[in-house]
């Protein structure tokens, strides 16, 4: 990573810290910023901050970073700027597997849900990898088109399962599908970290490989990269990160597309630097959306996915417009 990459990364980390601090003050239990910084909290405020809002914010940041990094990796793999886990059906595969696990095995411990989600997403990934052959040119486009088809089918199956599920379960799952951090606590954060943090060495090892993929499949193959191995490695990493995040927060729609582009607008980069900046941007987006959610609603708040869209899409449009204006004719 260059010095400029480190500078932008530190700026994004500082922004995330500020947003986390603001999130600690938002909610039905009033907490002043002065009391928070000075430690003058009563018992109710201390419980709200340390047991509810802090783990919720940390969980949201980690989930947002996981989804954003997944989107950045898929965009390098497919060389398509709108690729993300939802578009390729990976997130939908994890969602459907988790949903079936909850419906068919209601007594199943929640600790098994990330594993079930990973199995569902991995099945979709292996299906895509199997159908796209052995490293021919154009496989990236084939993955994208097949992923769209798979995502459509899995979304229809999910809707059918919700339609025939018990009403109380259907209502609870529908709230989860809208994106939510209402149930996030220290156990949820620990479970998410247990899946995400071991993937960090894999992500850093994938940096040089992603830099080659950004050059195109032909160039990457000419430079000695095994396209089949690289494709499988990226898909497995994306599945693990996406499934872990989906289990806790539900789908974070459009974040995998938006965060890498926002990071690129701040500083164009590739490889490891792009993953780091995308992850920090994704985590900051979720923290901002969660703070807005609880500031406008109750302690449970508005759906996280809705607030994420309200915050992120206008910024995303503005960035794309600025890039179009600055591009030389």
From TrEMBL:
It is found in: Cell membrane. SUPFAM superfamilies: ABC transporter involved in vitamin B12 uptake, BtuC. Belongs to the binding-protein-dependent transport system permease family. FecCD subfamily. It is a multi-pass membrane protein. This is Iron ABC transporter permease. It comes from Salipiger mangrovisoli. The chain crosses the membrane at residues 57-74, 86-105, 111-129, 141-164, 184-204, 225-246, 302-322. The keyword Iron does not apply. It comes from the Bacteria. Pfam families: FecCD. Keywords: Cell membrane, Membrane, Transmembrane, Transmembrane helix, Transport.
């Amino acid at each position: 990573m260059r010095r400029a990459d480190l500078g932008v990364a530190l700026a994004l980390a500082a922004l995330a810290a500020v947003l986390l601090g603001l999130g600690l003050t938002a909610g039905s239990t009033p907490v002043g910023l002065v009391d928070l910084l000075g430690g003058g909290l009563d018992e109710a405020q201390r419980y709200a901050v340390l047991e509810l809002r802090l783990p919720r914010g940390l969980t949201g940041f980690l989930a947002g970073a996981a989804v954003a990094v997944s989107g950045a990796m898929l965009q390098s793999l497919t060389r398509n700027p709108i690729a993300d886990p939802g578009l390729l059906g990976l997130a939908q595969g994890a969602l459907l597997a988790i949903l079936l696990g909850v419906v068919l095995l209601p007594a199943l411990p929640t600790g098994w849900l990330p594993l079930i989600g990973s199995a569902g997403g991995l099945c979709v990934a292996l299906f895509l990898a199997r159908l796209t052959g052995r490293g021919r040119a154009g496989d990236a486009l084939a993955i994208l088109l097949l992923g769209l088809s798979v995502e459509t089918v899995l979304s229809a199956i999910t809707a059918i399962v919700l339609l025939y599920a018990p009403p109380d379960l259907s209502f609870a799952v529908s709230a989860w599908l809208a994106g939510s951090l209402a149930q996030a606590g220290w156990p949820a954060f620990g479970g998410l970290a247990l899946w995400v943090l071991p993937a960090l060495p894999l992500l850093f090892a994938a940096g040089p490989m992603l830099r080659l993929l950004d050059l195109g499949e032909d160039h990457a193959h000419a430079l000695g990269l095994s396209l089949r191995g690289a494709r499988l490695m990226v898909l497995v990493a994306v599945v693990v990160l996406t499934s872990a995040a989906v289990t806790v927060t539900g789908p974070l729609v459009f974040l995998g597309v938006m965060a890498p582009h926002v990071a690129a607008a701040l500083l164009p980069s590739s490889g490891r630097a792009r993953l780091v900046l995308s992850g920090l941007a994704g985590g900051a987006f979720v923290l901002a959306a969660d703070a807005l959610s609880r500031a406008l609603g109750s302690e449970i708040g508005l759906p996280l996915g809705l607030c994420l869209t309200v915050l992120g899409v206008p910024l995303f449009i503005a960035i794309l417009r600025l890039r179009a204006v600055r591009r030389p004719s």
